[in-house]
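Example: tRNA (Adenine(22)-N(1))-methyltransferase TrmK.
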Amino acid sequence: MNAEKLSNRLERVAAFIPHGARLADIGSDHAYLPCNVIKKGIVNFAIAGEVVPGPYQSAKQQVELLQLAEFVHVRLGSGLEVIEKGEVNAITIAGMGGTLITSILEEGKSKLTGEERLILQPNISAISIRKWLVANDWALVAEEIIEEDGKIYEVLVAERGKSQRYSEAELLLGPFLMAHKNEVFRKKWTFELTQWKQILANMMSAVDTDALQNKKTEILKKIAIVEEELN
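Written out as structure tokens, the predicted fold is:
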């Protein structure tokens, strides 16, 4: 992967960036995504934000190598602190856990005007993001689920809008993904079912406590939701 050829995962993230947007890519690593969409003319300005000095330097070198420093600003900082309020209207956060993405959004809420499109690609725990979006009046407008190199990823796209109410199943599985239930969706949740059932089997030999009972109840609820949807 490089600035010329993104991974399929990042290609799908890029596909949801509006043409002409001003982009902030948070956790940009080598700045491949912002450099790619600048070179393709999808956006005319981008910020590559990175909290770790090593990747920040790598991103700066990449931007300078491609002579894109006029269009891609590389900034060192945590989460959304690298942007000014109203400076961008599209934000991508990819390749992190859903809980971390949620904390970045929560800690950076003061930087959001509500005019942005959020394009979020969690590696795990997309449910955390969906719950945050609902709680903060952001509406899901699209979702995708893809497989690449043996790993499955979800892409969530949200815009500020009327607060949506989702069922437990929709929060866990994704309302748009549930509507299509493609092969990758079925593969992901079939695997999760197997994992949960193994965890339950292991719990049978553990000392019973209130915490364990609560965990069992939580897992059984998720199993019931997924089995109903897959069947």
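The two ends are 38 Å apart (CA to CA).
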